[in-house]
Amino acid sequence: MMAGKRHLLAPGPTPVPEAARLAMARELIHHRGPEFKAVFEEVQKGLQWIFETDAEVLSLTCSGTGAFEAAMINYTRRDSTIVAIGGGKFGERWAEVGSAYGMKVVEVAVPWGESLSPEVLAEVLTATPEASMVTVSASETSTGAWHPVEALGRVVREHSEALFAVDGITAVGVQPIPMDAWKIDVLVSGSQKAFGVPPGLAFVAASERAWDRYADSDHPRYYFDLGRERDAQKRQQTAFTPAISVVLALKEALKLMEEEGHEALFARHQRNALAARAGVEALGLRLFAENPANSVTAALVPDSVSAKAVVRQMRDAYGVTIAGGQGDFADRLIRIGHIGFFDGFDMLVAMSALERALADQGLDVDFGHGVAAAQRVLSA
């Protein structure tokens, strides 16, 4: 490996395009001045475009988990009941946030790697008429699974008065998740995923229906008071000091996304996802998700192989960083990210390094087989 030569193919953080990197290298501006206000106005419009919503998309200086917490404590009450759809680390995180605030949480258990059927959710909501919010992680990053968000949202509206809150952290900008058309009440995302800028910003968009609940919420909050934040951002300001350099980068990243357009953006992510899936399957690995998302490919390694060792070898020997599994699958899964600033050649790099790392673990690898399978998808 050439010293310093690295390829980042984790499901987040993701590579930062040159225009965004250069924006962060410029002289810092003051967040209460007219220049920041002009930049932030462009960012607000770009976020509405990618979220496909007329609602304000609020920018918070925090991680995606901060957006989870803000979404939950601003649009529910202390005595609310939360229906939290599981299926992975991040779906289960919604339940953890609700429990931390003392709310009643009804967890909908979903085996990791599977997606929830709308029929099961309908049964749960029929049995839980008091539900105030239903939560789901659209693209479950820990397993690579995609939940049927549009269908689940219809079930929520048909069987409940609950708000429908969606973790779109590895979904927004990757595959269609139009907030207004699908009547999503709360949609959150984060800067370090499809947006292709460093960690530091999270986004929360809420419907007017959700804002009606805000007035009735009795949770304690200060930094994450979205009403305060909404008032400030209507003036192209933030309630507290934002991650200014990340905002400058985001402006450039959103411009690149808009130039590509929704259709091409989603098609590129799907093509890269199909190539990654074809490559790992050609190498004898099994896809973990029954309904894979286009953001990350999660694959089970053979029983004789340590996933942690594969991830470590790809990184240390070949300069390619992917992610391992989480929870009980920490040493069973590898996860290849293709979210954000990636093209097909990045998938070929990943497959090439994966072939070598598997061979280093003692597997009989037909070199070029995974690369060829990915190449056939990309060349179709």
Features:
Aspartate Aminotransferase, domain 1; 380 residues; four-stranded antiparallel sheet; alpha/beta; single chain; Aspartate Aminotransferase, domain 2; 16% strand; seven-stranded mixed sheet; 2 domains
Would you write up a description of this structure?
- This protein has 380 residues and is of the alpha/beta class.
- The protein has 2 domains: 18-259, Type I PLP-dependent aspartate aminotransferase-like (Major domain) (Aspartate Aminotransferase, domain 2), CATH 3.40.640; 261-379, Aspartate Aminotransferase, domain 1 (Alpha-Beta Complex).
- It contains 13 helices and 15 strands.
- It has a 7-stranded mixed β-sheet with strand order 2-10-9-8-5-3-4, sandwiched between helices. A 4-stranded antiparallel β-sheet has the order 11-12-15-14, with helices on one face.
- Helix 10 packs parallel to helix 12, helix 11 (307-318) crosses helix 12 (344-360) and helix 12 runs antiparallel to helix 13.
- It is globular and about 60 Å long.
- The model has no long low-confidence stretch (mean pLDDT 98).
